[in-house]
Amino acid sequence: MQIKEALSWGRAQLQEVCERPSFEAELLLAYHLKQDRMYLITHDRDELQEREDYEDLIKRRAANEPYEYIVGEASFYDIHLAVEEGVLVPRPETEVLIDLVADIIEKENITSIAEIGVGSGAISVVLARKFPHLKIIATDICDTPLKVAGKNIETFGLPGQIELRKSNLIDEVPEYLELVVSNPPYIAEDFLLESNVVDYEPKEALFGGSVGDELLKQIILDVKERDIKYLACEMGYDQKEPLQAFVNKLGVKSINFYKDLAGFDRGFVIQFL
Ligand SMILES: C[S@@+](CC[C@H](N)C(=O)[O-])C[C@H]1O[C@@H](n2cnc3c(N)ncnc32)[C@H](O)[C@@H]1O
Fold first, then answer.
1. Structural domain range at position 54
2. How many C-beta atoms surround the C-beta of residue 69 within 10 A?
3. Is 184 near ligand 1, meaning CB less than 6 Å away?
4. How many domains does the chain have?
5. Is 138 a pocket residue for ligand 1 (Cβ < 6 Å)?
6. Residue 53 domain-assigned?
7. Predicted TM-score (pTM) above 0.85
8. At what angle do helices 3-14 and 51-62 cross, to 10 degrees?
């Protein structure tokens, strides 16, 4: 099988699953050959070596496995992060949360924060790279995210800035904190997700309770009780109203909701003091 034949076979296999079957077939073939996509054009008549391995990659993707798990890497903000099954693939909408938090850190000269639910380390790694004086304690309740985040923290040379801690929310973080950031699980347990998400991504990263916003509400309560000034969280597109009602009862200095790039309500920043 020549490279160009391998590409058209891959494209046909991915037709039903991917929005861009040609592109993903090219990416997977380039990954298999450890070359860039340009190589595929300049060598399109070369015979494909270790063809079965390429076919296995395509079959995994055709079975709806996320591309990022297959290649072990996700592109996020200005970096590539290691990912694997057991860790949420970081999403582009979380980049909006990072920019909002970065504005607060800059304006208020913040140096000590915590992240709840570190996952791959996406939020903490990007923030630590932006602010070399920032110290972050990043928690997760699951072992695989802590392991993968640790690997990414090492890769980017950030062990001096980010400390990982196994903890429910910030229960094991008694230190003084100025801000907490979190992209917690916030999906309702009975919400029907696409198979590439629900069959492969960790349930602990997706579902926030039977309504979905239970963990978000607990985070709000915990941060308020600890007298921490700021809380910035991602949330579901339909959670603005219940969360607004919840903080109205609780009493906060301000809550500002933000939208993602697609125009959906996607999160909030609370100032408590
Ligand atoms: C939606 S993922 C976010 C991962 C990463 N921060 C990101 O934005 O890509 C939520 C993470 O929270 C963790 N988590 C779930 N419940 C938790 C809890 N009670 N305390 C701490 N972490 C929790 C999950 O294991 C998962 O890694």
1. 3-63
2. 20
3. yes
4. 2
5. no
6. yes
7. yes
8. 20
